[in-house]
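Lab notebook, design round three. We kept the backbone fixed and only want residue identities now. Task for the bench partner: fill in a sequence for the structure below.
Input structure tokens:
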């Protein structure tokens, strides 16, 4: 009898043993290799490492710039550390962007004057510097779409290498392109009979800057050659250096080639083209070269084509094997493959665009948006997913910028009459606030460093972590407590007015006690107190008083409002309800501040008013799925992530357009980041989640979810 029982137990446990086998990560990633067999401007491919990126078309270079810009994803070469400012001949001062704003009995100087000359200047400046553009020319002229046929291009996600095969006027061309695993270096190897004949050459040219008067997808400025310099400062066999100088910006482009070739300027006696260079073969059918970008603080490594390819392979293998992974390959639900595709491509794009030392704008390094400036309110989505998917080192790499900005942020808070640190909502590498009618009033970015530091501590619960980020956490908490204003008559602490909540849709003078911001203030101060306890420090009395007497989350008819006093969000004939109040349970964990059933009723009302699953688009897909999963409604979470409405579409290379600006912000990465945050929670869990694997997925037999290396959210 005992032997039969043991055999039965072994039989029952056998599937669990099978399921525990390591995921074949290479197979999961290979399922979603990007392949182009036609010219599709929405399928441009971005290569990079977080601090450097370039986007290529079907030729493997950036040959068809205008077609891709007009119809899809721009073709750019960028890094996180080359920035540019236009001249300021009128000596406009940042102080001229400031205006007094009433704040609870006193005046604060906020940079609200964005439509003045100073406001426009400091809104646009500084902005990232576009680096060189690499393209093919045929008979000295730009290659045209009618010259191209037989396209077969692949992006091997596992190695980060693009292989492009096509014909040019009937002749074969094969191009291999990669970005270095960590440095600002690209490598290209191109082979064709047209290279041997000299008809096909590689063109490198430099724009002056971006036309920043077009805010979210500025084109290059090509037509002002006299405003910048491209000087060939060194020429030697197999090597050339081009010094770039545009206003106060300087950087070098180091070209190295390993095949017989020469670099020549396109300038002639008939045509002045001082920023146009051609690399042409002197023998053989191959051009193989690297291009490295450097400045006084960032040196160009002496890399070959082979070493750059090897670096890309190693860096991507490390990324895919050392982090988290989800395998939905054996799930029978028909939505599984698309959910997995979106996840794998989003994982790829987040490393390309956000794994650097400066958190870029919401379109990452793919193209310029918001003048390339860091939008700190959504950064927690971009960074939290690195923690969830097992890449805490990449979270810390970006978080280091906050540590460097801490003294400047403390000075900013002091100038405004607050304690602690005031983080800029939108800033360039210099950390200076950007003028705007919205920027100064945003506050939900302020607790983000506490949230991210807590994630680091969960992964690395050491005293070293506490000491490294303690000041950042405590100064952030000081601001939270200082910003909340106590009503002398009631003893209740309130947030605003003036402020702008997440949706930014209500006048700052009318926004008081927004639901999510109240919940985030409460959670942030509680976590900061925990950090004090971990370090052996006593609780901070004022923080405790704010938590104990913070205004309740506003509600009406048993559902949370977005903002206190802004009522009647739901009802017959109303459409498109705001959803930011749902972040209080989803983005944030369950806390004493939030009533679960009120949150559930609110979620259902928002969901119905949005038109069910198809109403969740952009980064709100992740937002809705986070809330649904925490509420124990996994089918709804899956349906939201699987939304295939046009505005929720993920393009072939994984990017998603911003629905509010589909022709401007064509690579809107908060969508990818929030998606990964939601899927990571559904597969990897959260504090208090139901027991068992993949607690955020339905248990209906159609979802076989294999996950490993994921870290749970709070």
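Proposed sequence:
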């Amino acid at each position: 009898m005992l032997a039969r029982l043991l055999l039965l137990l072994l039989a029952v446990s056998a599937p669990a043993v099978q399921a525990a086998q390591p995921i074949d990560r290479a197979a999961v990633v290979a399922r979603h290799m990007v392949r182009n067999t036609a010219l599709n401007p929405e399928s441009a491919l971005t290569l990079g490492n977080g601090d450097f990126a370039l986007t290529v078309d079907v030729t493997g270079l950036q040959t068809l710039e205008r077609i891709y810009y007009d119809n899809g994803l721009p073709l750019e070469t960028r890094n996180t550390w080359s920035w540019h400012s236009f001249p300021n001949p009128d000596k406009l001062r940042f102080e001229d962007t400031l205006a007094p704003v009433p704040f609870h009995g006193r005046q604060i100087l906020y940079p609200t004057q964005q439509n003045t000359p100073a406001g426009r200047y400091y809104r646009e400046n500084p902005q990232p510097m576009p680096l060189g553009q690499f393209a093919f020319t045929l008979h000295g002229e730009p290659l045209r779409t009618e010259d191209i046929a037989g396209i077969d291009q692949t992006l091997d996600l596992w190695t980060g290498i693009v292989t492009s095969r096509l014909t040019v006027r009937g002749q074969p061309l094969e191009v291999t392109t990669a970005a270095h695993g960590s440095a600002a270096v690209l490598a290209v190897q191109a082979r064709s009979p047209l290279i041997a004949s000299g008809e096909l050459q590689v063109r490198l040219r430099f724009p002056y800057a971006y036309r920043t008067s077009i805010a979210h997808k500025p084109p290059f400025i090509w037509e002002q050659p006299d405003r910048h310099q491209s000087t060939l400062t060194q020429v030697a066999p197999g090597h050339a250096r081009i010094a770039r100088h545009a206003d106060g910006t300087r950087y070098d482009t180091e070209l190295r080639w390993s095949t017989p070739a020469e670099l020549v300027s396109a300038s002639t006696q008939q045509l002045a083209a001082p920023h146009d260079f051609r690399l042409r073969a002197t023998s053989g059918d191959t051009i193989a070269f690297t291009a490295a970008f450097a400045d006084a603080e960032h040196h160009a490594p002496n890399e070959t084509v082979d070493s750059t390819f090897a670096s890309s392979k190693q860096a991507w293998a490390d990324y895919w094997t050392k982090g988290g992974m989800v395998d939905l390959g054996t799930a029978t639900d028909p939505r599984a493959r698309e959910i997995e595709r979106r996840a794998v491509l989003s994982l790829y794009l987040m490393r390309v665009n956000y794994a650097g030392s400066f958190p870029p704008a919401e379109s990452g390094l793919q193209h310029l948006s918001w003048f390339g400036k860091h939008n700190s309110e959504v950064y927690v989505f971009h960074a939290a997913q690195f923690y969830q998917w097992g890449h805490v080192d990449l979270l810390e790499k970006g978080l280091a910028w906050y540590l460097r900005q801490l003294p400047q942020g403390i000075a900013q808070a002091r100038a405004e009459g607050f304690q602690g640190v005031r983080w800029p909502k939108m800033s360039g590498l210099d950390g200076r606030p950007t003028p705007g009618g919205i920027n100064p009033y945003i506050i939900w970015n302020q607790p983000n460093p506490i949230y991210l530091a807590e994630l680091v501590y969960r992964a690395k619960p050491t005293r070293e972590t506490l000491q490294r980020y303690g000041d950042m956490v405590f100064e952030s908490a000081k601001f939270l407590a200082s910003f909340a204003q106590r009503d002398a008559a009631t003893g209740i602490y309130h947030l605003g007015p003036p402020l702008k909540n997440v949706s930014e849709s209500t006048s700052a003078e009318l926004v008081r006690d927004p639901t999510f911001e109240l919940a985030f203030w409460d959670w942030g101060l509680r976590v900061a107190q925990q950090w004090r306890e971990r370090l052996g420090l006593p609780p901070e009395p004022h923080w405790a008083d704010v938590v104990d007497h913070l205004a309740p989350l506003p509600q009406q008819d048993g559902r949370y409002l977005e903002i206190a006093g802004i009522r009647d969000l739901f009802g017959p004939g109303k459409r498109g309800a705001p959803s930011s109040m749902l972040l209080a349970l989803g983005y944030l964990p369950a806390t004493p501040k939030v009533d679960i059933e009120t949150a559930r009723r609110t979620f259902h009302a928002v969901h119905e008013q949005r038109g069910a699953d198809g109403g969740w688009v952009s980064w709100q897909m992740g937002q809705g799925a986070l809330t649904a999963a925490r509420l124990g409604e996994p089918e709804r979470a899956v349906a939201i992530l699987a939304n295939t409405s046009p505005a929720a579409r993920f393009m072939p290379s994984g990017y998603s357009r911003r629905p509010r600006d589909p022709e401007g912000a064509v690579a809107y990465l908060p969508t990818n980041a929030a998606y990964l945050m939601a899927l990571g929670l559904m597969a990897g869990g959260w504090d208090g989640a139901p027991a068992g694997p993949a607690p955020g997925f339905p248990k209906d037999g159609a979802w076989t979810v294999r996950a490993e290396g994921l870290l749970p959210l709070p």
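Keep this in mind before ordering anything: Residues 1-19 have pLDDT under 50 and may be disordered.
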